[in-house]
Amino acid sequence: MSQKFSSLAEEGRLRTEWAEMHMPVLRLIRERFEKEKPLKGVKIGACLHVTTETANLMKTLVAGGAEVALCASNPLSTKDDVVAHLVEHEKMKVYARYGESREEYYEHIDKVLDIGPNITLDDGADLISTIHAKRQDLIANIYGGVEETTTGVIRLRNMAEKGVLKYPIIAANDAATKHHFDNRHGTGQKTLDGIMRATNILIAGKIFVVCGYGWCGRGVAMRAHGMGANVVVIEVDPIKALEAVMDGFRVMPIAEAARLGDIFVTVTGNKWAINREHIATMKDGAILANNGHFDVEIDVVRLKEMALSQRRIRQHVVEYTLPSGNRIYLLAEGRLVGQTAAEAHPAEIMDMSFAIQALAAEYLLKEHGSLENKVYLIPQEVDHSIARLKLKSMGIEMDELTEEQKEYLSSWTVGT
């Protein structure tokens, strides 16, 4: 290895060690895995954001006896020092680099699949969809997969409903310890972090438009409001829209909000939440950011077609000048702003999310013979065990039901 690569690997090792200090639940799982080796002989293919937190998940799976291969789930979220650390110090198969082309992205997915995985770990379902589209010869040896994101789960549930899903999936995203914390607190913090690092602007006083009020949108709106922004929410679901109103936010159509907003963030899981018509009415200086998994939520292609000129102002900021003379600023190429312009979720958040991934892999190995080709929730007892471990690591104790209380809750004869 070159001296430069070794230096990069050492930087990655230190940053991964720092993340590990803040991931106590995953550490406890790793300690058990090292003793029990529940994944011995299992091959795991992973398509995830290659970060320090992901490195600790990979180390946990290897501690459990698995052979792993990892590629990136986003071309701009890879931390090259982490790749160097895993390759040089941990001797793992990692196929990723920051800024890889679309062609390289899918070449790396194929290299991961070349190990013949028994379990797949996905963040956006690109690994699973590639298997179903091009590598169906691998399916006979696959026990199941785990999906991390809202967008990926939507894709996979559609596949299951149409009868084309070929192996069972655990929806890690739908675990309470995932969406309550990762999607809300993690996405909320990392989105604001990405915007501020990219732009160095003041959030307070801005009209901050959040497209989508699922768990991620709730988190973004909450964090923006906490920093003094005037938050506007865009929704198509009446229940979520009503919830946003009750949470104290203005709700309106995007066509109306487009004329008002200073900062726009998309977290919908759908394409073209902000389209050409919306962009055309935005005021000079409007900032567009996406934190949905795929780069389709803002119609970047039409934005480029509309613009008379474009130039890069800062590392993650491109200015597009429209025929009206108004300048629109796109962050992180319309990709995950919190992954690209910042360091993604804090380690404390990914501690729970990756604990789910590790325990879901163990669960699939034990139970795959009894599972159908459907999308499953993680068992509640696993979800609760992760929450208890997290509370314990924080030094927090909680009450338990007494026998009398349990009996009362299970009874139908005791009333007023």
TrEMBL record:
Cellular location(s): Cytoplasm
Keywords: Cytoplasm, Hydrolase, NAD, One-carbon metabolism
Binding site for NAD(+): 149-151, 183, 212-219, 235, 270, 345
InterPro entries: Adenosylhomocyst_ase-like_sf, Adenosylhomocysteinase-like, Ado_hCys_hydrolase_NAD-bd, NAD(P)-bd_dom_sf, S-Ado-L-homoCys_hydrolase_CS
Pfam families in the record: AdoHcyase, AdoHcyase_NAD
GO BP terms: L-homocysteine biosynthetic process; one-carbon metabolic process; S-adenosylmethionine cycle
Segments forming domain S-adenosyl-L-homocysteine hydrolase NAD binding: 183-344
Cofactor binding, per record: Binds 1 NAD(+) per subunit.
MF terms (GO), sorted A to Z: adenosylhomocysteinase activity
Enzyme Commission number: 3.13.2.1
Binding site for substrate: T51, D123, E148, K178, D182
CC cofactor: NAD(+)
Gene3D superfamilies attached to this UniProt entry: Adenosylhomocysteinase-like, NAD(P)-binding Rossmann-like Domain
Keyword Cell inner membrane: no
Family the entry assigns: Belongs to the adenosylhomocysteinase family.
Protein name: Adenosylhomocysteinase
Organism: Candidatus Hakubella thermalkaliphila
